Amino acid sequence: MKRVYVNERWCLGCRLCEYNCAHANSGVKRMSAALKGRRIYPRIRVEEVASTRGSATGLVTFAVSCRHCIDPRCVRSCISGALTRSSEGVVRIDKERCVGCLTCVLACPYGAVMEGPEGVAQKCELCSQTGYDSPNCVAGCPNRALVYEERI
To answer: What is the CA radius of gyration of the chain?
Structure first.
């Protein structure tokens, strides 16, 4: 199954993946109309951590998104059955069934499930529900730090 992977060596920490994700999931055609003057709720987020590689120190930035695990803890922990894994391997959330307990947020070892604007869980669904051919975060990454590919 194809997934989003990050190469932290190429990540600039620009957060354009977050804006492209929020736009893709907003349902609004123009990015400026979708995001201007609003708090965004991306399903991917950029993290910064201190790094000490050899004698060099500094910040390493990388994007965190759902890994669509083979045996997802978030799905197993969901008390309402709102999280499911499709036959294609995509882990999805049914917002109508989510009760907002956010147990899935605690269960995800990668921190990829988060609270959305309506108080229910949200996570990356690979833009499968938006009509894009590939995840919008990947398409909007100026340095190609994000890739959408199948790996063994």
So the answer is: 16
